[in-house]
Amino acid sequence: MLSLKNLTKSFGENTILRDISLDLENGETTVILGPSGSGKSTLLRCLNLLETPESGVLTIEGDSVDFAAGLSDEQVRTIRKHSAMVFQNFNLFPHYTAEQNVALAPVLNGKMGKDAAAQLARDLLEKVGLGHKADSYPDNLSGGQQQRVAIARALAVAPDYLLFDEPTSALDPELEAEVIRVLIDLAREKRSLVVVTHN
């Protein structure tokens, strides 16, 4: 379970999130819907500590942090291991192939060797319908294909929660459908998804 209690986040004098509490069950898809500027992405970024709130308590799978007390590097690593983020603009490494983008994190995290990570990457690319694009670089992929590579990359670290920040907003409608199909498949597998969107 992922739980937030009384989270507050400000940027300068602007309080973006005030006293937010929520509980997210394992195996469910949660959609955070709202207009641009309403704090949706900030909330998502607080869940994996890309943004640090001023106060509140975050608990993921039994690991808790109290933001008012400050965070150690070890606490940040512990919380981040529970989630993986899929960004609006893909954030793939342009000098790595699709396979290399997906295989990188498991190797850097020490979870597996290069050969095992390469096989995992191929399997995950197949899962998102891109097995035939394993050797392609991001600039040779459509936006929808890049986003599916980003989803495979997130899956490669076996997170408890997949966090999606506007995963289809940068895509044309036909490419958006490709990504939505992957999200639906993940939801049917009872993966824990948190999706921020405005549409």
Automatic annotation (TrEMBL):
It is a peripheral membrane protein. GO terms for cellular component: plasma membrane. The keyword rRNA processing does not apply. InterPro entries: AAA+_ATPase, ABC_transporter-like_ATP-bd, ABC_transporter-like_CS, MetN_ABC_transporter-like, P-loop_NTPase. Keywords: ATP-binding, Cell membrane, Membrane, Nucleotide-binding, Transport. Its main location: membrane. It is found in: Cell membrane. PANTHER family: AMINO ACID IMPORT ATP-BINDING PROTEIN (PTHR43166), GLUTAMATE_ASPARTATE IMPORT ATP-BINDING PROTEIN GLTL (PTHR43166:SF9). This is Amino acid ABC transporter ATP-binding protein. One of its GO terms (molecular function) is ATP binding. Residues 2-198 form the ABC transporter domain. The keyword Iron-sulfur does not apply. Belongs to the ABC transporter superfamily. Pfam families: ABC_tran. It comes from Candidatus Rothia avistercoris.
